[in-house]
Structure formats: structure tokens, C-alpha cells
Amino acid sequence: MPAHEIDYRLIGEEMQAVEIELDPQETTIAEPGSFMMMESGIRMETLLGDGSRENESFLGKVWNAGKRALTGEGLFMTTFSNEDIVKRKVYFASPYPGKIIPIDLKAFGGKIICQKDAFLCAAKGVSVGIEFKKRIGVGLFGGEGFIMQKLEGDGLAFLHAGGSIIEKDLKSGEELKVDTGCLVGLEPSVDYDIQFVGGLRNTIFGGEGVFFARLRGPGKVFIQSLPFSRLADRVISSAPKMNGKSKGEGSILGGIGNLFDGDNS
Asked: Which domains does the chain have, with CATH numbers?
């Protein structure tokens, strides 16, 4: 089905939200947990699947929802429909510090491939499915496994990624090497493979992993500066230990360092 034509506005810088303005009878779909607030006149409904196929059988909905579950997402999605006679707004928030990327699928030939947890919300009619990576190396070492998300349709979709976002428009044959966790999305025309870092010291002591993601154009790719896994590792490493001290707290100056930390215990 043709996607609904929604209007939007991005709010904030580091912890962004997206404001979606719905005309009467327009609908947007979203991942459960991304909702922030909505105006009166909007009806919220939980659906099995993404609602992109009208008059789809129950078994068809279960099948498509099951495929989404393989990417780590839930079986259900939430729709927000404007049942008022005037325009109404609904808001969705990013789950951690980063940026929201608006994607007009018509500009990408009706399809884009993204990491498994990147999808935030979209106009109703956009299909949220799975994309299998055929190369064993990509599946085993690409950071996203054999399965990624694919968004198909002719409407607006919104992705979320950590930190800042860099868009690179690769020319035919142009290559880009990326940390496997930093890849957010790419056009289907981009050739995606993995490449060994090389060198014993690089592999053991480089601290950058064993493989790069090798992207070859033509096509556009989206790169994030702060993958959530990297953020989580830093938070965990700085978390208080059993003795109440965080890793590295006063580690050089000992008790004197704790005075500067504001900890006099």
C-alpha cells in the first residue's frame, strides 16, 4: 500500500525526538517503547506486524512478525492514527544519546538496509522486514550477524543511531573501511563485505577488532560515531565495584585522589 505522507520536525541535539504531524486519517507506525507524547484526537493501537499490507491473513501477519523477531525486535508494532478533523501531533524519542535520521525511501529506490535496532518509526505503509547477508564472513564477523533490517516502501522512515551521523555518498568502485559496529545503514547497491585488519600487532594490540566492514560503492552509507555497544562498555567499566569504588577512581593518587573526586569516605 502507498505510505501516508507525514510531516515532521526534529527536536534537540544530543537526545533527539521527532515530532510527526498527522493530517486527518493519517497514521504512523513505531517500535514499542519509542512513544513520548501525543495530542488529543490520536488513537493508539498495537498491531501484529507493521500494518503495511491491507487485508493480509492472520497467518501472513504472524509470518511477517516472526521474521521481524529474528532481528531482535518484537512481534508487535504500535500505530498512531489521527481520528480528528484537524492536524494532530505525536512525538517519539531516541532511546540513547545520538541522532535521528529521516529517510525518504523514494530517494533510495524504495529500500534501505540498516542495523537491527536502528528503526524508530515510519509512515504507515512502510514495510519493516529482514535482510539476509549471503556471505559467511559478513554473517560471522560483520557485527550484525546474518540478519539485518530492511525498510521498503515509498514513505518516510526514521532511524536512530549513537553519537553523530556521517553520510558518505560512495562513487562506483569507491571503498570505505568502517568499524563493524559503526555501520548504521546502506543502500542495496552498496557491496558489503568484511576485511581482516592484518598484522599481528594490529590484531592483538590495536584495540579496534579483528575485522573492518568494507563498503564499496555506488551508493550512500550512514555511519555512527558512538555505537551503543561501545557506550555500554564504557558505562560498565566505570560502574561502582563491590567496594563502592569505580574503576580508576583515585587510582593514581589513592586517598588524595579521592579528595579531588569529592569522596572523603
From this structure: 7-163 (3.60.160.10)
